[in-house]
């Protein structure tokens, strides 16, 4: 069985599109290769798999390995946004139009792996990224399988939902996260979120912010707005009007683009970048010594 798939398509910025799945610079499940390809380790319905995706002269080429490889090849076009409709964003405002023009090929893809997106989002609740990424690395290295294929030895496939339920309290402690997120993960793991993705906020410990992060990654939702994010309002405000705003200000700025609000957020992130830091930063906490 072939482990390769190629399809003709319009311009797709593979790195920018798939970059939302990267959990820090040393994510065991994600690699950026020197040739520009993006490698992801994923636990699919058919088991662990690794996929490598690259743009190639008006086409996209995907290669995959492991029991989940065929599933990943079937899912590859959606993952890089082949079914996305960026033209649905009506950008009459010249600033937004400029963001669109400066991000050719940026798509909103969907992985159809709700649990993978949800559990990572739970780890990132109300903490700085470095704290969540540290825990993600530890837990994948402790409980994830080695990624199949010609990959670095430290690449790991995120464990399936059943394994997350069995992570010991001592290993949660060693990961550096506090018990509240352990309890949220365990509660969510008791539900098949792949078939109940429309009721994520009904889960214990899952609010609008967490649900939005799961929805735009797993379901390609172009309108998922992560209310309560530490950085996003400042990124959006700075990109659109040149000044920081709070959640209310961000929602006001995004209202003309309802239905495509996350697309505007992603454009602001990719093109506008992070605003200059001012004032105190969130501190990184470490519960391992408690």
Automatic annotation (TrEMBL):
Organism equals: Gordonia humi
Matches recorded under Gene3D superfamilies? Hypothetical protein, domain 2
Task: Tell me one GO molecular function of this protein.
Answer: DNA-3-methyladenine glycosylase activity
Report the protein name in the record. 3-methyladenine DNA glycosylase
| Keyword entries, A-Z | DNA damage, DNA repair
Q: Which domain of life is it from?
A: Bacteria
- Which InterPro entries does the UniProt entry name for this protein? Alkylbase_DNA_Glycosylase/TA (IPR051912), DNA_glycosylase (IPR011257)
Listed under GO biological process in this entry are: base-excision repair, AP site formation; DNA alkylation repair
**Presence of keyword DNA repair:** yes
């Amino acid at each position: 069985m072939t482990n390769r798939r190629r399809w003709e398509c319009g311009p797709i910025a593979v790195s920018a599109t798939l970059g939302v799945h990267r959990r820090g610079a040393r994510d065991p499940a994600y690699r950026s290769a020197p040739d520009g390809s993006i490698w992801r380790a994923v636990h699919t319905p058919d088991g662990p798999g690794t996929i490598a995706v690259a743009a190639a002269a008006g086409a996209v080429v995907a290669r995959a390995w492991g029991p989940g490889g065929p599933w990943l090849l079937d899912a590859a076009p959606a993952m890089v946004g082949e079914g996305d409709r960026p033209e649905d964003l009506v950008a009459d405002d010249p600033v937004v139009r400029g963001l669109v023009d400066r991000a050719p090929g940026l798509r909103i893809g969907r992985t159809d792996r709700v649990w993978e997106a949800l559990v990572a989002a739970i780890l990132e609740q109300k903490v700085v990224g470095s704290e969540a990424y540290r825990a993600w690395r530890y837990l994948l290295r402790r409980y994830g399988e080695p990624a199949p294929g010609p990959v670095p030895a430290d690449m790991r496939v995120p464990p399936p939902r059943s394994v997350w339920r069995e992570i010991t309290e001592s290993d949660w402690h060693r990961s550096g996260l506090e018990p509240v997120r352990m309890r949220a993960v365990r509660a969510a793991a008791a539900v098949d979120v792949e078939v109940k993705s429309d009721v994520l906020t009904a889960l214990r410990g899952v609010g609008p912010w967490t649900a939005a992060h799961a929805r735009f990654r797993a379901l390609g939702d172009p309108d998922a707005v992560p209310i309560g994010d530490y950085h996003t309002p400042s990124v959006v405000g700075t990109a659109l009007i040149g000044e920081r705003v709070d959640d209310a200000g961000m929602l006001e700025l995004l209202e003309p683009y309802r239905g495509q609000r996350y697309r505007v957020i992603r454009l602001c992130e990719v093109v506008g970048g992070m605003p200059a830091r001012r004032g105190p930063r969130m501190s990184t906490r470490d519960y391992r010594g408690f």
